[in-house]
Amino acid sequence: MNEYKLKSIYLQQNTNHSLQVKKNLTEDLVVLRVGDHKVGTNNYHHFRVPIQATVDIRYEALDQKSMLRIIFQLKQRDLSIQYFTWKEDEQIYIDTPLTRFNQSKAFQHILQSISFTGENHFSFLVNSLQRLSDQPF
After folding, report:
1. Which among 60, 67, 61 is positioned nearest to 84, based on CA atoms?
2. How confident is the model at residue 108 (pLDDT cuts 50, 70, 90)?
3. Are 34 and 114 in contact (CB under 8 A)?
4. Handedness of CA 94, 99, 103, 107 (dihedral sign)
């Protein structure tokens, strides 16, 4: 099983709002929790983000041969997941179907480590533990 580390988090807002996140009584903020999972350990990072923002989270395999991109638009309740693999001869990442990766333990841990919470908001991404082919039982 490949292990993945958190590579980057990007925040994009429309032009009416600044990209700087400030604690403000009128601004609707949620807490984004994102985790890195290594065998036996979870490291969590917490960020305050505006509810109207688009959040782009990227994970990279430790061997740097694949990358996972998860994009949330909370206000619209949109979720996009992209999986990329490294093409050695062209030295680029190419878009790859999720068919094998979405059944892996690494994918489950990544999805379970991401949550949004706030006064009136809860994470809409729930993925309970399931028995998968790469899990030793």
Report:
1. 67
2. confident
3. yes
4. positive
| Under 8 Å between Cβ of 27 and 48 | no
Does the pLDDT value for residue 38 go beyond 80?
A: no
User: From CA 41, how far away is CA 70, in angstroms rounded?
Assistant: 22
Q: What is the pTM of this model?
A: 0.74
Beta-bridged to residue 42, according to DSSP, are: 37
Count of CB atoms situated within 10 Å of the CB of 130 = 9
HEC secondary structure over the chain? CCCEEEEEEEEECCCCCCCCCCCCCCCCEEEEEEEEEECCEEEEEEEEEECCCEEEEEEEECCCCEEEEEEEECCCCEEEEEEEEEECCCCEEEEECCCCHHHCHHHHHHHHHCEEECCCCECCCCCCCCCCCCCCC
55-85: pLDDT as tens digits: 999 999 888 888 999 998 877 878 899 999 9
Find out whether 80 and 70 touch, Cβ atoms under 8 Å: yes
